[in-house]
Amino acid sequence: MPGNLHATGVSMADNEPPQVFVTYAHDSPEHKERVRRFADFLHGRIGLEVHLDQWDDGERRDWSLWALKHLDTANFVVVIASPDYKRRAEGNAAFDEGRGSQFEAARIRDRLTRDLGGELKRILPVVFPQQSVDDIPNFLNPHSTTRYPVDVFTEEGVEDLLAAITGRARHQRPERGQWRGGATSTASPGKTSLATGLEWRACSDGIRTEGARINDVHYADSIVLRAAERLAFVEVDLGMAYRRLTSVAGVLDDAVEPFQVGHFRVLLDGRPSPEVKVALGRPAKIDVGVTGVLRLRLEFHRPGTTESKWLPELAWGDPVLE
């Protein structure tokens, strides 16, 4: 089965975890312990194949070869920012200070010089709360490229880091809608029926979509209530895709009880507009701006409605979004 190409260009099966090498400096025993706990979390909880020097010191080995192997074959290299790592990585430390981190940083610099674009996606600077962006080596361009603050060792705490490793953004780009033209366009904007053109997020049981006659005008795509609902509603997700809602709110011309009063209200992202009252022969035109609104809710009811009498006979006539 074909695999996916990861940052190194190495093909991996879809179910094979990415290889991650952790490079850091032994600034202090506390910092070293913090790095180990971070690696423990990535390996044991997240399921990445992590390589850390503290786990491989159970035998005599050539640490330069060990580092080269992982630096060159790992899918990702996590650089733990710290003052000592930065100083050594930038050549500002004595030759015999932190030879391991100096060697690893030199290899990273060499690979960046050879393939800047590829290594940019592969080298992932991580900043713990005890450090800052200024502790990232300058050759990693800490202020103009992405860095990954990790404040807590939880799935949420490493969410941004995992997005870089998996290649899946935290928020997926939606499908592009139909372009309606710029401000100078002479084309008419698109219109969508709220009754029949959008999937409702939620609604009351007694609501129907059908034609409605209000004040001797027929509205073909209306939201009609003829059931015992104390407060009927329709709720839809707009996704900030519309500018305006228009409708006619009214009592149906064929209402059995002609003296009823209907109460109508629009809510934009939970914020209610003033309630509108209508009566037979006295509908109300609704014209509401919805620019930037994520969720729209239409409410209507007849006060005093019960199961046995005073049933509402109300409608939102041709509610349209544009």
TrEMBL record:
It holds the Pfam family SEFIR. Residues 17-157 form the SEFIR domain. Coiled coil: none annotated. It comes from Amycolatopsis keratiniphila subsp. keratiniphila. This is SEFIR domain-containing protein. Gene3D superfamilies: 3.40.50.11530, NPCBM/NEW2 domain. It comes from the Bacteria. Residues 172-191 are annotated as: Disordered. InterPro entries: Galactose-bd-like_sf (IPR008979), Glyco_hyd_98_carb-bd (IPR013222), NPCBM_sf (IPR038637), SEFIR_dom (IPR013568), Toll_tir_struct_dom_sf (IPR035897).
